[in-house]
Amino acid sequence: MLNVKKIVVMSDSHRNDENIDLVLKLEPQAAAYLHCGDFCGDSRNYPMLNMVLGNCDYDFSLPRIMILHFEGVGIFMTHGDKITARNKTLSRWAKDN
Question: If you ran DSSP here, which 8-state letter would residue 63 be given?
């Protein structure tokens, strides 16, 4: 059996903390939790989440872009609301970072 680590990705919870609580309860052994913006709440309540700023967030201390590394694999994270030509732009941003 493979020893696979799970990374949980979520986005656009818009203050529905009960949904985040449910995800954390259902996936307690995840190696990491990523939230791709529009959390819309107090990020200090969820220190286990790696978060980026979404267009509806008001915690401007959150970064617009986050780059994480897990076992040699890079993960590029952004909300993406300001991106036009989405595929080309995201690909370029990821390569640049």
Answer: -
What pTM value is reported for the model?
A: 0.86
The model's pLDDT over 8-24, given as tens digits with 9 standing for 90+, comes to 999 999 999 999 999 99
In degrees, to the nearest 5, what angle opens at C-alpha 83 toward C-alphas 93 and 72?
30
Q: Does 1 score more than 60 pLDDT?
A: no
> How far is it, in rounded angstroms, from Cα 89 to Cα 84?
7
Question: How far apart are alpha carbons 38 and 24 in whole angstroms?
Answer: 18
Please name the helix (run of DSSP H) or strand (run of DSSP E) that holds residue 75, with its range, or none: strand 73-78
CA gap 71, 88 in Å, rounded? 26
